[in-house]
Amino acid sequence: MYQIGDKVVHPLHGAGVIVDIVERTIDGAPATYYALRLALDDTQLFIPMDASEKLGIRPVCSRAQAQAFLQRLDDIVRSESKGWNQRYRENMLHIRSGDLDEVAQVVKSLAARDRERGLSMGEKKMLLSARQILESELCFALDCSPQEIAQVIDQHLET
Questions:
Q1: How would residue 26 be classed by pLDDT, with cut points 50, 70 and 90?
Q2: How many domains does the chain have?
């Protein structure tokens, strides 16, 4: 169970702060929800408490874990080129995992492909989303601004 003020990560939306715990009745069934304010925009998500673990909601990584992640970021291998459909499905699986290394693999693969050949609109959106997921968690873990984290990630993408 999370409390108001806890910083957590939603695998598809990135990191945020639980700002409230509310009771809502939907289709006649009462349920309790976490109100999650996302870090990089002013969006608020309502996540059913009962389903939070199933959805992959987890605490933000520690400062030490974030620093270790940045140290190994250059070593994360980008995935090999495949057909667009297969690549898209695999990238979505990596993002949905909620694992920083897997999300970073998507970012590295799509950024490299963008430099080499360009991306479709769907892949550009996926790249932006994956970057936001990484940046939001690292901002919280390292207590940095989104711009500072974006610069760090950009430096690692150039290698």
A1: confident
A2: 2
